[in-house]
C-alpha cells in the first residue's frame, strides 16, 4: 500500500482592517453567556444553605467584586418571575465594613448573652440582645442623655447637623395689619460697638433693703439647707406705669425703660426663645414697655442647651413649668438669705409701688435706682434699676448686692453634671455647664447688676429634693462675683451691648409717632420691628375710653409733650 503523503491545508485568515481581533463571532461561542472575571476575584458559593438565616446579610462578602454581573452566584430564594421590585434606597455598607465601632459593639452584644437567653428585637430585626436588657435598650434610645452612648456604639452615624429643628411658637401672634419695618439678624448685631459710655448719674433712689446673712456662704452639699417659702410681694411694674418715671419724663431724658427690658435687648443675641417688647414714640421720646399678663418676667431654663427641655405641655419639665419653678426659686432664695426682722437700710425715698393696704414687711426687699446715661447724639436714657440686698463689710462700708438663684431640675435630662457629686469639688465645672445651658439668662443678670451698679452678684445653687417633685428644694451652696469680672468670664462685651441698644433706639427714632413692637423670631437668630396700630394690646375699657375721647395713644396724659 502506498504511503499517504502528508498535505498542508491552508487556514482561513481573517483580516480586520478596523482593529485587532476576529471580525466575526465563532459559531461555537454564539449565544453563550459570558462574565468578565479576574484571577484575584472571590469565588461564589456553589449552594447557599444559610441564606435564610443571620448569615444572609453577609451575602455580598462572597460575590464577585470584578464587573457588574452576578448571574453565576447562587441564592436560595423563591422564584417570583411575575413580581418586580425597584429599590431606590441608598445601599449601606456590609456590617463587616463599618469600622471598629461595629466590631466592638458586636463583641459586647455577644458577651451579654449569658443566662437570660436570646430574643429578637421587635420589627423582625436579626440583631440579638439579652431579654433582660431589651427594655433598657428601648429606654436608652428615647432618653436624650443616654442617646449619646447609643449613637456612639452605632458607629457615630448620628450628628448634630442631622437633628431636626424644633419649631417654637412666637410670643405673640403677628396680625395681618402689622407692617414689618426692619429685620435685624444677630450677625449684624455682633459687629456693633459703642465704647466709652460715661458713668451713669443717679436721679432718684428709693426703697429699703435688708442685710445679707453671711451664714449662707458656709452652706455646702453636706450641709444643705431647705428652701423656704417666703410670702412677699414682688412688683414688676412696666415703664409707663412707673410713677417716678412719669415725673422724670417732664424734665430728664428722651428714652425710658427698665433694667429687665434693657437687659433683654442688650443680650438678645444670646436668646433662643421668642419674646417681644412694645415701643411707643411720642414726639422725640421713646418708651420701652412690656405687655401685661405675659411671660416676659419668667426665667428661662436651659434655653441655650444643646437639647432644650421638651415642649410637652403636660410634662413636669416643659419650658413653661420649668420657668415657673425657676422664678419661684429665685424669688424665695433672694428673700431667704436676708436677715429678716432687723432694721433695714432705707434710701431717701420710699418704695413707690407700695399701696395703702400693704406694709413694708409684706413687700420684698428691693431698692430702686433711677439712673441716667448719655449715649451721645442727643440720646439720654433713663432707666429703673434694682438692688436685692446690702452687705456691711468690716470697715463699715456698704456693698449693694444682686441675688439670683440657679436651679437643678434633672441632671440626666439637662445634659449637665450632678450637683450633689460635683458642686463641692468642681464648682467651676458646674458653673461652666450653666453658662453653656443658660447663657442668655446669666448674661441678662450680669447686665442688670452692671446697670444698677451692684458691687457683687451672688448666685445660689438650688436643687430639687426629688427629681420628680418640683415643689421641694434645697440650697446646696452659694457663690459671688464682681459683675465686671463675671462679665469678662462669660465673654460679655458691654461695648457691643450698648451698640445693640443704640442701633435699636436710632431705628425707632427715625419712625413717625406711633406704636411699634420688637419681637425675637422663635426659630431664627433675628428680631423684627413691626409697626402696629395704636390700640393694639389695649383692654376693652381702654379702647372704649379712647373711642369716646378720640385719643389713640396709650401713653398717660402727663407723659405727652405739651401742646404748642
TrEMBL record:
Q: Keyword check for Transcription, yes or no.
A: no
Domain-level remarks: The RNA gate region regulates mRNA cap recognition to prevent promiscuous mRNA-binding before assembly of eif3d into the full eukaryotic translation initiation factor 3 (eIF-3) complex.
- Superkingdom of source: Eukaryota
Keyword annotations? Cytoplasm, Initiation factor, Protein biosynthesis, RNA-binding
Biased composition, Acidic residues: where in the chain? 537-549
Family statement? Belongs to the eIF-3 subunit D family.
Complexes and interactors: Component of the eukaryotic translation initiation factor 3 (eIF-3) complex.
What residue spans carry the region label RNA gate?
A: 295-309
Instruction: Give compartment(s).
Output: Cytoplasm
| Disordered: region residues | 98-126, 139-171, 532-564
**GO: which molecular function terms?**
mRNA cap binding; translation initiation factor activity
Q: Which InterPro entries does the record associate with it?
A: eIF3d
Chief place of localization: cytoplasm
Q: What does this protein do?
A: mRNA cap-binding component of the eukaryotic translation initiation factor 3 (eIF-3) complex, which is involved in protein synthesis of a specialized repertoire of mRNAs and, together with other initiation factors, stimulates binding of mRNA and methionyl-tRNAi to the 40S ribosome. The eIF-3 complex specifically targets and initiates translation of a subset of mRNAs involved in cell proliferation. In the eIF-3 complex, eif3d specifically recognizes and binds the 7-methylguanosine cap of a subset of mRNAs.
Question: Could you identify this protein by its name?
Answer: Eukaryotic translation initiation factor 3 subunit D
Q: Does the keyword Transmembrane apply?
A: no
Please provide the Gene Ontology terms (biological process) for this protein.
cap-dependent translational initiation; formation of cytoplasmic translation initiation complex
Q: Name one GO cellular component term.
A: eukaryotic 48S preinitiation complex
Quote the biased-composition stretches of kind Polar residues, using this chain's numbering: 151-165
